[in-house]
Amino acid sequence: MATITPEVTWAQRSSSDDPEKNYIYLTIVAADVPESDLKLDLKEQSLSFKGTSASKKCTYAIDLEFFAEIDPKESKISHSGRDVTMVLRKKELKEEYWPRLLKNNKKMHFLKTNFDKWVDEDEQDEAPEDDSMNQMNPMGGAGGMGGGDGGFGGIDFSKLGAGGGGMPGMEGMDMASMMQGMGGAGGMPGMGGMGGDDSDDDDDDMPELENDEDSKDKATPTEAAASSDKPKIEEVA
User: Fold this and answer.
1) Complete edge-to-edge strand list for the sheet that includes strand 23-29
2) What's the pLDDT tens digit per position in 121-144?
3) Rounded to an integer, what is the distance from CA 97 to the centroid of its chain?
4) Which residue segments constitute the domains of the chain, with CATH numbers given?
5) Which GO terms describe its biological process (predicted)?
6) This prediction's pTM
């Protein structure tokens, strides 16, 4: 199986006082690589990536040495069928941009600027916030991203919710219990309270009410029977 160098794209932001605005946006384009076949070792000054794609019949592999240090514990990651995207927190708070991504100043054929994410250094304040980063998973607590067995440095993607197509914040919810609770609470708009047809059945079982005046004029069957049993008194002349 052939080993190839994946395309890497990057952009950055910088700040001297806000760590969350001081980061590298890094994407490794490696299509059709399942989490179980991914290994990523992220350190303060370097990144090592390897992933195998059965459908593409190749192994992606790359090693990067950063221009300056990053903070792995404060970085984030997201995996899809097309690529692996990371937001790497720069360790040093600094207003100026890194002059380049890598320590080596030679031009790398695989490295490209992500123009969809890039903004000039003096235009950062006007740039809109990237909401996609809020859906990414933190790398902190993953054992330093050791890159050992178990794929992706030991990250359990089923717990993080990455690559599973689920909605953020929905992990671990008992849908059956939630739907049952919705039925008792009136349900969602347009869903009829999730309570089935009980309300309609109750309406069908209720007898029609007669007019009060008509009911006074009409004798009940019991009253009519009692009246017929009484002997008639004839008037004697």
Assistant:
1) 111-113, 7-13, 23-29, 83-90, 70-79, 137-138
2) 988 877 667 666 665 667 664 433
3) 31
4) 2-175 (2.60.40.790)
5) chaperone-mediated protein complex assembly; protein folding
6) 0.60
